[in-house]
Amino acid sequence: MSELIKLQNISLKAADMVEEGRVHKALYSDPEIFEEELDKVFQNTWIFIGHESEVPEAGSFKTAFVGRHPVILSRDRKMNMHVLLNRCRHRGATVCEGRKGKTKAFTCPYHGWGYGLDGGLRAIPKPEEYEGVIDKNDLPLESLRHESYQGLVFATFKSDIEPLEGFLGGAKKWIDLFIKQGGGYPLKVLGEHRFNFPGNWKIQLENTTDAYHFPIIHKSFISSLDDATADIFDFLDGDGFVEDLGHGHSVMVMIPDLVDLEADLEQPIPERFEELAQALRDEGQSEEQVKRLVRAAHGTGFNLNLFPNVSCSMAFFRVLRPVTVDLTEIQHVALGGEGAPASFNRKRMRLHEHFQGPMGFGTPDDGEAWERVQKGSMAGKDGWILVNRGMENLHTSKDGNVAGAVCSETGMRGAYQKYKQMMAAQGDK
User: Which domain holds residue 107?
Assistant: First the structure.
């Protein structure tokens, strides 16, 4: 009987582990809580799937996950997008294993059932054996509701969920600013890399709006910069801030001068970008366009966290996928401009590689810290994780939201309050 009660109260148990200014370490390591999160969180909200530039043509596709569920983002012959459950309706095998590509159809490798780009069942080997048994029209690949905002594609299992723009709320302003990194060209995915770290997904979720760690963890990165650039990243005592945007979303503004990449274009070109500027001039770009592209090449001066699985982090997308309670997949996505000068996109890629690439300075440093948090969460019988930094030094932003200093943990608290709400709301199911 006690075991039954325990199982019925998992959600309440998880919700009770989020208090004002602290969360219990069991949220990182309890496998029962993790399984409940996959349902209560990842199947009950909008989940980032990818960017529209990743499926640019009819027949284009990419695979992704909604929590643990494999899905396909595809474009049909009429250029309509679809998000399809990657599961054959016959015996359940995945019908697409490639990460990205172009195809005319999806074919199950097990028994050869064929599906169109819209998910419709088109072909069955030996169809005569199914006469009077099934109707192909009744067995398409299952579709998920999906919507896009500024090229960012989200999907959900929840059919009655609020529209995507309502879910994004105050984050839309920051997405609008983020996409200006195309330098006047549409934002485009240039490349990606993936890796796993042995830790819980919420550890990474916390990291995106955690400026407090930057001068400690990223000393090696800062030491690789010229003095002028290093000064830019010395932002803990600056005018930056962290703002709770609602719905679990938050933004951390580290470099206020780089919030709007289309402002202050008359500023002198920094020395570290002179080579790019000259390359653009040599390609025939006007001086006005040179300045616009150089400024866009910087990346934004903020990290935007979109609960629960994606951050628009300075110059790239960071996408998380929960695998197990102590294993998370991270996808780093480099961004540039569709049709932008090649020198601009090359510079964007080199800057990405310098910090977030597989051989960059930032990725191994962050990964080491996340792994240590997971290890530490196993120590002791009781223990709390503090997220209370800056709680007594808050103010109201110009948009009417709760905000704190750039090194506050305001964003983490906002995300955990949304998490607490979602875990508790479904507790009596």
Answer: 47-149
